[in-house]
Design a protein that fits this description.
alpha/beta; Rossmann fold; Nucleoside Triphosphate Pyrophosphohydrolase; eight-stranded mixed sheet; about 30% strand
Length: about 325
């Protein structure tokens, strides 16, 4: 059990889902709740204040923070726009028993869940529809290019609702405000009583290597290479270690089939299964070989993308390029 007494409420969801509106209402009404300002390189929007929702920093300063290990996690959420969670603010707040809340990206929240499982609660804010989500971003004046970029990412983000501890469908603002406040109060009391944060979970990482039309599977044992993340290791880091463990030099000639996603590579398939510990989260990353050899390496075989040994739900995703969640 962690010695930290505090709890970190991570509010996640697509842009325009209403996260900040709901979060700011809770901050105004719950005096024991403290906002954690995350860091970003984007320009402030009209009305935004420094140290209110974000610490606005330059790109050189952000690089300095990365090099100095000042960020617990960071990523390029949108092209050229970087976000990160300041390490010192989180560690000091949890050690002091504070109740922190912040708007985070889903991948960053997954990272923090791994690092602080007993001190985090992930709350997913879901929009009623993609059409309503687009209209909300238009009403707040987001550039059309940003809206289109974010909508492309939304399909991946929505799948992470299955991993959240709490889900709020924000189709009625007044109802959603009450729902968030009730969740925060109930989770705070539960944490004070039982020292319980996010639901117990176990991570399981698999790796599929493929070229444009074939999958590479093992001849013996598990068809896909896999591993359990180590202590304080987040799932995408375990996937990269899977690459290092392959019996041929593959790391430098592989790239993620979903494209670049900043410091995090989103999985192609996310499966959530009940287990004795609570939940088992199975992440499958897909990597495409460039200039793949015609003959498979020793101990491996090339097969079709419809091979029955592939995880259910994965084959249809290989040509879609979106992460999916299997219930």
């Amino acid at each position: 059990m962690s010695d930290s007494r505090g709890i970190f409420f991570m509010v996640v969801g697509p842009p325009g889902a209403g996260k900040n509106t709901l979060m700011n209402d809770a901050l105004c009404r719950l005096p024991w709740l403290s906002h954690l300002a995350t860091c970003t390189t984007r320009e402030p929007r009209p009305g935004e204040l420094e140290a209110d929702e974000y610490q606005f920093v330059t790109m050189p300063r952000f690089r300095q923070m990365i090099a100095g290990n000042e960020l617990l996690e960071w990523q390029e959420v949108h092209p050229g726009l970087y976000y990160g969670v300041p390490r010192l603010a989180v560690e000091r707040g949890l050690a002091a028993g504070e109740n922190l809340i912040a708007d985070l990206d889903v991948l960053g929240a997954t990272c923090l869940q791994t690092l602080y499982p007993e001190n985090t609660v992930l709350i997913f804010i879901q929009p009623p529809s993609l059409q309503e989500l687009t209209q909300r971003m238009q009403r707040r004046g987001d550039p059309e290019s940003d809206i289109q970029s974010r909508i492309r990412r939304v399909h991946m983000e929505l799948q992470y609702a299955a991993l959240a501890d709490e889900v709020i469908v924000n189709d009625d603002l007044h109802k959603s405000r009450d729902q968030l406040r009730d969740i925060l109060k109930e989770r705070r009391e539960r944490h004070r009583r039982d020292r319980q944060g996010t639901a117990p979970r176990r991570y399981f990482v698999r790796l599929l290597v493929m070229d444009d039309s074939r999958a590479l599977l093992r001849l013996e044992g598990e068809a896909l290479p896999w591993r359990l993340p180590g202590a304080r290791e987040v799932p995408h880091q375990a996937a990269l270690r899977c690459l290092d463990d392959l019996p041929w030099p593959a790391r430098g000639c592989l790239h993620n089939s979903l494209g670049h996603a900043g410091s995090f590579l989103p999985p192609t398939l996310v499966e959530v299964q009940p287990c004795a510990e609570g939940k088992e989260l199975r992440f499958t990353w897909v990597y495409r070989l460039e200039n793949a050899p015609e003959t498979a390496p020793p101990g491996w075989r090339w097969t079709s993308l419809q091979d029955p040994e592939l995880p259910p739900g994965l084959a249809q995703q290989l040509n879609v390029g979106e992460a999916v969640t299997s219930p």
